[in-house]
């Protein structure tokens, strides 16, 4: 998987910075220099991503990272330039450099020392959301995560598992619960898991009504896998610096409400 593969490889590389780069990426000229300069000028930045555009539709942002990753108070991830499946056209609106909550694993620059200090990627995640979990642990350790709009790359997307694959659904739902359980303080954890149980159940019913019974079963399996993993997750909680979602790059509302009820598709963090 993505997580263990990188952990094994990066232990064998001595460098100040690592670039975690997917195989389905097209880079552009001078894509590395602006990011390294940004991180060199601020030693508190542990990880950074460039602008992620769609390889097949190059005027638009790409799903996996877009213009920087964020999270709402219920733990749902989203990006500037991408809310659920709504992708914005790149009109230069996100050409800035700014702090974000998570940097995409499709193209992540990470300071080697900080990567190893927090234990690298969680190998139990296999793939999906492991980069958000890593960034959360880095932020809880006092580091910053950044987006660099001066650099851009193009991403095909779906190279590991496409969205029609029930395994992707399983990993997304299970790993989201893993991430919350590992990183949240006890006072907020129980209520948040309860909310997610309800919302994930609604998502499962939605899959069922759409004729995607395999995805409904994937949601059910994800929850049982999470419950079974709690003893191991408890060990990881003890090793983490637990912090609630009170960071300055957390959206205080619900992206589910904004997108599905209010029909909002952009500008949540601007």
Order of helices and strands: HEEHEEEEEEEEHHEHHHEH
Q: Spans of 5+ residues with little confidence (pLDDT < 50)? A: none
Mean pLDDT: 93
Structural class by SSE content? alpha+beta
Shape: globular
Biggest sheet, in brief?
7 strands, mixed
Distance between the termini: 35 Å
- Number of DSSP strands? 12
Number of helices: 8
Cα-based radius of gyration, to the nearest Å: 18 Å
Helical residues, percent: 40-55%
Q: What proportion strand?
A: 15-25%
Key attributes of the depicted protein:
270 residues, alpha+beta, 7-stranded mixed sheet, 3-stranded mixed sheet, 12 strands, 41% helix
How would you describe the overall organization of this protein?
- By secondary structure, this protein is of the alpha+beta class.
- Helices cover 41% and strands 21% of the residues.
- It contains 8 helices and 12 strands.
- The chain has helices at 2-10, 33-41, 112-117, 130-140, 166-183, 186-209, 213-239, 255-261; strands at 17-21, 25-27, 45-54, 57-61, 69-72, 77-79, 82-83, 86-87, 97-100, 107-111, 144-155, 250-251.
- Strands 1, 2, 3, 4, 9, 10 and 11 form a 7-stranded mixed beta sheet that branches. A 3-stranded mixed beta sheet has the order 6-5-12, with no helix packed on it.
């Amino acid at each position: 998987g993505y997580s263990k593969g990188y952990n094994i490889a990066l232990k064998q590389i001595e460098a100040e910075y690592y670039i975690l780069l997917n195989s389905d990426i097209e880079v552009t000229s001078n894509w590395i220099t602006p990011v390294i300069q940004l991180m060199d000028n601020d030693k508190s930045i542990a990880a950074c991503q460039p602008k992620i555009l769609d390889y097949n539709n190059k005027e638009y942002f790409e799903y996996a990272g877009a213009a920087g990753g964020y999270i709402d108070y219920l733990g749902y991830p989203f990006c500037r330039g991408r809310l659920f499946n709504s992708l914005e056209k790149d009109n230069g609106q996100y050409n800035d450099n700014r702090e974000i909550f998570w940097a995409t694993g499709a193209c992540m620059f990470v300071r080697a020392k900080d990567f190893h200090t927090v234990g690298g990627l969680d190998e139990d995640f296999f793939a999906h959301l492991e980069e958000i979990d890593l960034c959360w642990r880095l932020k809880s350790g006092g580091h910053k995560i950044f987006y660099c709009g001066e650099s851009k790359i193009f991403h095909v997307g779906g190279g590991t598992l496409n969205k029609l694959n029930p395994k992707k659904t399983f990993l997304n739902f299970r790993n989201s619960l893993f991430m919350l359980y590992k990183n949240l303080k006890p006072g907020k954890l129980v209520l948040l898991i309860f909310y997610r149980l309800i919302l994930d159940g609604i998502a499962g019913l939605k899959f069922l009504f759409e004729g995607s019974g395999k995805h409904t079963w994937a949601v059910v399996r994800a929850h049982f896998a999470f419950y079974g993993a709690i003893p191991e997750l408890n060990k990881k909680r003890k090793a983490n610096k637990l912090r609630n979602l009170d960071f300055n790059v957390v959206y205080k509302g619900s992206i589910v409400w904004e997108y599905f009820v209010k029909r909002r598709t952009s500008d949540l963090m601007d």
